[in-house]
Amino acid sequence: MRSADSxxxxxxxxxxxxxxxxxxxxxxxxxxxxxxxxxPDAWYNLAVLQRTAGxxxxxxxxxxxxxxxxxxxxxxxxxxxxxxxxxxxxxDDAAEAELQAALAxxxxxxxxxxxxxxxxxxxxxxxxxxxxxxxxxxLDPDSSDALARYADVKQVAGPDDPLIGRLKRAxxxxxxxxxxxxxxxxxxxxxxxxxAYDQAFDAYAAANRGSRESAGPGVxxxxxxRQEAFVDQLIDAFARPRSTPAAPASPPRPIFICxxxxxxxxxxxxxxAGHSHVTAGGEIDVLPSLVRTELAPFPAxxxxxxxxxFDELASRYTASLSKLFPGAAYVTDKRPDNxxxxxLIKTLFPEAKIVHTTRNALDNCLSIYFLHLDHNMGxxxxxxxxxxxxxxxxxxxxxxxxxxxxxxxxFDYDTFVRAPGPAVQKLLAFCGLDWEPGCLDxxxxxxxxxxxxxxxxxEPLYQRSSGRWRNYARHLRSLEAYLGDLVGDPAPAxxxxxx
Length: 499
Known about the structure:
By secondary structure, the protein is mainly alpha-helical. It has helices at about 5-20, 20-35, 40-50, 55-70, 75-90, 90-105, 110-120, 125-140, 145-155, 160-170, 175-195, 195-215, 225-235, 265-275, 285-290, 305-325, 340-350, 360-370, 385-405, 415-420, 420-430, 475-485; strands at about 255-260, 280, 330-335, 355-360, 410. The longest helix has 22 residues, at about 385-405. The protein is globular, with a radius of gyration of 24 Å.
C-alpha cells in the first residue's frame, strides 16, 4: 500500500507533467519510484518524459520496469520501445522484436502492425510491408493511414488499377482534413506513376489544401518576411569564419549532406554508404536539437558561446555518433535542412566536409509540393511559398560558399544520373575516400531508409526524375517565371518523363 507521502508525490509529478514542466516532473517520478517502485504507470510516465528529453536508454529501462511490474496494455509499451529502437537508436532488429512482442500479446493491435509495415518498407521489404497493410485494412477498412501506406508501397499497373478507384472512394467519405490530405498525397503518387499528370496535380493540390486546413485556424504556416529576416540573421551571425576549436581526430568522422529537401540527399548518402569505410547515419537530429535548446535563440546566442563551450558541443556530437554507430570510421549526417547550420557546423568542426545536394529548381520545388511534409515546413504547402523558400536557400548558400567554399561540394543530381562514374569519383575524392566500385551499386546497400526516396534508392540508377517538371509544365508557369535565373533545365526536350 502506498503511503500518503507517495500519493502526494505522485500527484505532484502528474501535475508537473500536465503543466509542461518535464524536468521537474521526471525528478518527482524518480523520487517517487525510489520510495515506491511497484507503480507501473509511474514508470510509464517517467519513460515518456525520458524519451522526450532524449534519454533513450533510460526510457527503455523505465518501460521495462513498467512491463515487469504488470502494466495494463503491455503491447503499447512494446510499441513505444520499438519506436525508440527504430527512430532514435537505429537498432532495427531490436525494433522488430519489440513490435512482434506487442503483436504476440495482441495480434490485432493496429499501431504495431502499422509500425511494423513502416519498418519493413524502410528496409525495402515490399511484400512484407504490403501484407501488413492488408492485415490492417482487414481489421479496419477505413484506416486512412493503412490505405495511404499501402498505396505508397504498391506498384500500380496503370490508370485502371483498382487501387486508384479505392483511393478516390475513400476521399469521398467524410473524414478529417488530415486524413484526406494523407489519402490525397497517396492518390497523387499513384496517378503520377501511371502518367495521369493533370489528375495527379489536382490530387496533390487538394492534398495540400487539406494539409493547410488540418493545421487549424490562425496557424501561420509560412511567413516570407520572417524567413528573409532569419536568413539575414544567419548571414550576420556568421559574417566571417569564427575562431574555432580543433576538429576531433578520432572516428567517427562526420560527412554532412544537406540541401533542399527532395534534392537527392538520400541517393547521395546511399552512394557513400556503398563505401567500406562509410556508415549511413540518416537524418541525425543532434545539431537541430542543439539549435532548439542550448543555442536558442539561434543564431543570436552564437555570439555568447565561448570556444570552450563550442568544443564541448562538438564532443557531445561526436559522442552521439560513437554511441549510435560504434566502430564506424565515417558517418553521414543527412539532414537536408542542415544547410541552415553550415556556419555552426564549420564552427564545431573546422575540417568538416559538406556535400551540398542540388537538382533542377523546378523539379526540386515540384517534388517538395508533392510530398506530405510536416506543418513546420509550411512552405511546402504552396508552390510559390516553396519557390520563395528556395530563393532564400540559394541566397544563404551563396554566403556559405563565400566563407567555406573549399569545403562545400555541389553534388548535382541531374549531372550524376547522366554520368555517375565521374561524379562519384569527385565525391569520394572530396570526402578523402579512396575509389571503390561498390559506390555505384548503391541499390544493394542494405540499411533502413526513412525518407520518401526509400524505393528509388533500391533501384539501379535511372534518369526519369530528371526533368520531371515537364510533365506539369502548364501548371508551373508562375513558378518558372518567379524562379527565373535560378532555373536550369538539363533534361532534353521531347518525350514525357515518367517519375
